[in-house]
Specification:
about 220 residues, alpha/beta, Rossmann fold, 8 helices, binds S-adenosylmethionine
Length: about 220
């Protein structure tokens, strides 16, 4: 008889390898997420009550629309800042019409992004929910996490997505990615974040293993 770990791993592999996440939509717009992660984020957002969400990696804008919809139901004065290197005109047009979404078209590690977050924090009070979903190489994710050191505050929430690749447990041949970035980051800065294991483990599998993080300590 299989134990729970084996069952959830098999379900994770089935879900990922069949590309269910590529065919998942929110209000008709593609949203590259597992639906249980999306529900989990909704629960975290409701508990955290942020007025600002920062997303790295917009793609078609489905996740930005999702976060904006949840956020405005929690907090009328709220904003999703979503950053992407490439944004098609139809994506720009789709998001421009939503007063709860602001887009930036540059690399997530561009210093302009950190400056914008600092400015937005002055307007949108309270904790911030960050989600990293752009370039999934270890180097880039580590650079994103390091760039957030200067703009995060204790109590902020950080999701590092796609730490399931490179064999954790999917895409075993991917090469070093978000999981290895998280490990390296914790090696360098062991006290910056604690793990929210309750949320991480809640639905049995997640595309962000080790990636449900709560900012601790002082800002450096
Ligand atoms: C996985 S998709 C994002 C999916 C989206 N968050 C969703 O849930 O539907 C990754 C996106 O990251 C963008 N990207 C890649 N490198 C980037 C970088 N250095 N800075 C910002 N965005 C980047 C890509 O253009 C792509 O649109």
């Amino acid at each position: 008889m299989m134990d729970t770990k084996q069952i959830t791993r098999q379900y994770h592999e089935w879900y990922y390898n069949n590309g269910v996440w590529r065919r998942t939509t929110f209000l008709g717009v593609v949203c590259y997420k597992s639906v249980s992660d999306m529900w989990n984020y909704q629960e975290i957002l409701y508990r955290l009550k942020p007025s600002l969400v920062v997303e790295f990696g917009t793609y078609q804008g489905g996740s930005a629309l999702y976060f904006a919809t949840i956020l405005q139901a929690i907090n009328e004065k709220s904003l999703v800042l979503t950053v992407d290197l490439f944004m098609e005109e139809d994506v720009k047009a789709r998001l421009k019409n939503n007063k709860y979404i602001k887009t930036m078209h540059c690399s997530s590690i561009d210093p302009r992004v950190s400056n914008e977050i600092i400015e937005l924090r002055k307007i949108y009070n309270g904790p911030v929910f960050f989600i990293l979903d752009s370039d999934h190489s270890k180097k880039h994710v580590l650079a994103e996490m390091e760039s957030l050191r200067a703009v995060t505050k204790p109590g902020d929430y950080l999701i590092v997505e796609d730490s399931n690749i490179n064999g954790h447990p999917v895409l075993p041949d991917y090469g070093e990615g978000p999981m290895e970035a998280i490990i390296e980051y914790f090696r360098k800065y062991p006290d910056d974040y604690s793990h929210d294991r309750e949320s991480e483990n809640k639905f049995g599998f997640t595309f962000a293993p080790e990636g449900f993080l709560i900012r601790q300590g002082a800002i450096s």
